[in-house]
Amino acid sequence: MASPWIRRFGAIGLVLLASLAYAKEPKIRTPFLEGWEQVSLEQMERQAKAYPEVYWIEGPGESKVVAFTFDDGPNPINTPPLLKVLKKHGVHATFFQLGMWVEKYPDLARKVLADGHVLGNHSYDHPYAGKLSNTVFWEDQVAKTQAVFQRVLGFTPTLYRPPYGEITDSQVELLRDKGIKVISWSVDTRDWLSARSMNGDAQIEGMVTQYVHPEAIVLMHDGGGPRDHTVEAVDRLIGNLKEQGYTFVTIDKLIGVAPQFAPPPAAPAPKAASAAVAAK
Ligand SMILES: [Zn+2]
């Protein structure tokens, strides 16, 4: 039996209510790839719906913007040519870096930041997090990498990308409570797989061209193997997407958050010093 509220406001009210609750259904556009032990699309979409404002697979609106993201760096072979291409096109992207590589290549991480890109946490050494307790996940992976960022780059990021897209609900809740956003993707270019193909760059380009949509989060890599196909594809894709009317944004702008936590407040001045200032 319909509730009095529904009888009173009718179907139009229901539709309005539904559209408010689900302004946009978060959805992964690229199909599931069999045989690679990937997290199911259903699982990622369920988490995006279960944790709105925390777990993101695409932007919340319909603006013609797209966010390119690059994982697993910084990498001395791949990252410099990628930075060159992005600079040539005047595009800023989001780099989800591993704590172990930021530690090993601090100058490269600083160069990515200096070029105006946004940096996020991609764990310390890329584990399958589904097997980790919350304590190990936090201490040995997320917090450890936050500390590396603080040491090398002077800030801690608010954005975290789970390796393989694998993260338990309880880990999402832990990050939520720490004020960290979980960033997955809506378009998987599969560049890690195309890296092995002769025409890998065309395959990567094809995936983006076929599945791009307003407020897409596009997954690519500048670490974890040879990425010259990715760099070539990015060079062509930026021009193509601009021609289609897309502009490029970083993840923080896409979802409307600050990319870095505010620094902790400075320690209060010693008593004698503040008294001296007050006396002046
Ligand atoms: Zn990764």
From TrEMBL:
InterPro entries: Glyco_hydro/deAcase_b/a-brl, NODB_dom, Polysacc_deacetylase_ArnD
Pfam families given in the database record: Polysacc_deac_1
Residue intervals of the NodB homology domain: 64-249
Tree of life domain: Bacteria
Protein name, UniProt field: NodB homology domain-containing protein
